[in-house]
């Protein structure tokens, strides 16, 4: 085995052991691009070594998806067999592994109206599986793999081969693959983030006040909100790691109490388009205006997806000194870029971000301030100039972030 294949095998093992923490007799669903055959084989092999019953591989092909969206005569219908299979996956409590390697511009130039229509149809059909995933009824993880097209975006100055290799190495560094025992390194990282979450939970802040150049925003937090870092526990009590990398500690905002303005600090890759220079104005939780230097039409379509797409569903804290931020790279991929920076999400909140939330129905979540939507799109707002205060119900301000770093 050459050195790269060895690294890839270690990565596959990290995904299986820490990502979804495969247990004996489990079914695994692996979503992975057709450009990642070697990694797919290694993940499948590792999953069986960890006792999996069956690994279902769902191959993703952006070109075929693009051809479908551009040409189909029916964007609205989802095959019943897809929905049936989702029900089986939920009933079996199968673990889901998603490997993202897409070209960030895979859908650039496709009619955004057609993309939106298809995403609505898929969003509705996937509703139950998305709920089960967001509720942590099953274990799930999202990880990345380098494709040549993606690598070219991140390292435009390098040759295709060098860029591909450089992106792989950046991914490996960001998931702590170079430490002696990556699974142990993740356990320690998890404990650090859990400490931060515990401190924030103890305060139960009524609101957060964000200040930075181009930003002055108050974000209300719902009663009994829960901050959470990195690791998660599924409904059977098994731990898993929803995202690798992850550097964030996050909770849900009160969807009705967001006021002021905020500027994004990194480009957003959404629906195959790169949106740059975004600015948002909020009133009583709603985005009342937004603009972007490029990709503005796609941004405006995004916030029109449904009622919830005009409101926030996540507030996440990430120090500016995070390894991904220090790499100085823009990955044009949310999994990485969100872990470089404080971020917010447009759209749905996670039901576990509030005490008792996983037992609440949609209406109850909404009443408790947790935004409901078909979309959940993170955008980055952090910088070395950002300060965040926690505001207690008695009006007292407690520093949480100063100059982009944890203040406690
Ligand atoms: Zn996040
Ligand atoms: Zn998010």
Can you give the mean pLDDT? Answer: 94
Order of the strands making up the biggest sheet = 15-14-11-6-5-19-20-21
| Gross geometry | globular
Oligomer: single chain
Cα gyration radius (Å):
20 Å
Q: Classify the beta-strand content into a percent band.
A: 15-25%
Distance between the termini: 46 Å
Number of domains: 2
Cofactors and ligands present?
zinc ion
Given the helix and strand composition, which structural class is it? alpha+beta
Report the sheet with the most strands, covering strand number, pairing sense and barrel closure.
8 strands, antiparallel
Low-confidence stretches: none
Q: Helix proportion of residues, in percent? A: 25-40%
Output the number of helix runs.
13
Describe this structure in words.
- The chain is an alpha+beta fold and 408 residues long.
- It has 2 domains: 2-174, Thermophilic metalloprotease (M29) (Thermophilic metalloprotease-like); 182-231 and 245-406, no CATH class.
- It contains 13 helices and 21 strands.
- The protein has helices at residues 3-19, 37-49, 62-71, 80-92, 112-125, 127-134, 148-154, 160-174, 182-203, 296-303, 323-326, 334-337, 362-367; strands spanning 27-33, 54-60, 95-100, 140-144, 207-212, 215-220, 228-229, 232-233, 239-240, 249-251, 258-263, 268-270, 273-275, 279-283, 286-291, 312-317, 343-347, 376-380, 387-391, 397-402, 405-406.
- The strands form 5 sheets. It has an 8-stranded antiparallel β-sheet with strand order 15-14-11-6-5-19-20-21, covered by helices on one side. A 5-stranded antiparallel β-sheet has the order 7-10-16-17-18, with helices on one face.
- Helix 7 (148-154) packs across helix 8 (160-174).
- 43% of the residues are buried.
- The mean pLDDT is 94.
- Bound molecules: zinc ion (2 copies).
- One zinc ion binds next to strand 16.
């Amino acid at each position: 085995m050459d050195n790269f294949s060895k690294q890839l095998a270690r990565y596959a093992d990290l995904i299986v052991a820490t990502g979804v923490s495969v247990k004996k007799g489990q079914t695994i669903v692996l979503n992975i691009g057709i450009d990642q055959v070697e990694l797919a084989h290694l993940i499948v092999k590792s999953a069986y070594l960890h006792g999996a019953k069956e690994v279902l591989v769902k191959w993703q092909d952006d070109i075929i998806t693009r051809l479908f969206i551009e040409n189909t005569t029916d964007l609205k219908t989802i095959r019943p067999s897809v929905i049936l299979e989702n029900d089986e996956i939920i009933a079996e409590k199968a673990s889901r592994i998603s490997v993202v390697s897409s070209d960030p511009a895979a859908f650039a130039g496709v009619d955004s109206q057609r993309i939106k229509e298809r995403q609505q149809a898929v969003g509705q059909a996937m509703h139950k599986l998305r709920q089960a995933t967001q509720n942590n009824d099953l274990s799930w993880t999202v990880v990345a793999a380098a494709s040549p097209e993606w690598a070219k975006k991140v390292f435009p100055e390098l040759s295709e081969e060098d860029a591909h290799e450089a992106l792989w190495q950046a991914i490996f560094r960001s998931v702590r693959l170079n430490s002696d025992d990556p699974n142990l390194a993740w356990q320690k990282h998890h404990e650090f983030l859990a400490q931060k979450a515990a401190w924030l939970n103890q305060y139960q802040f009524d609101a957060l006040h964000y200040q930075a150049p181009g930003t002055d925003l108050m974000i209300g937090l719902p009663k009994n909100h829960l901050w959470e870092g990195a690791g998660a526990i599924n409904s059977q009590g098994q731990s898993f790691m929803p995202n690798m990398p992850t550097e964030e500690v996050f909770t849900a905002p009160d969807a009705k109490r967001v006021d002021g303005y905020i500027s994004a600090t990194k480009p957003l890759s959404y629906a195959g388009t790169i949106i740059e220079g975004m600015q948002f104005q909020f009133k009583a939780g709603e985005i009342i205006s937004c603009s972007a230097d490029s990709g503005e039409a796609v941004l405006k379509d995004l916030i029109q997806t449904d009622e919830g797409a005009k409101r926030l569903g996540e507030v996440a804290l990430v120090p500016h000194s995070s390894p991904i931020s220090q790499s100085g790279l823009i990955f044009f991929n949310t999994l990485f870029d969100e872990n470089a920076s404080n971020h917010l999400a447009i759209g749905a909140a996670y039901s576990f971000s509030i005490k008792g939330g996983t037992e609440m129905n949609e209406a109850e979540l909404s009443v408790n301030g947790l935004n409901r939507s078909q979309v959940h799109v993170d955008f980055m707002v952090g910088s070395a100039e950002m300060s965040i205060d926690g505001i207690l119900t008695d009006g007292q301000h407690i520093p949480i972030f100063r100059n982009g770093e944890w203040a406690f």
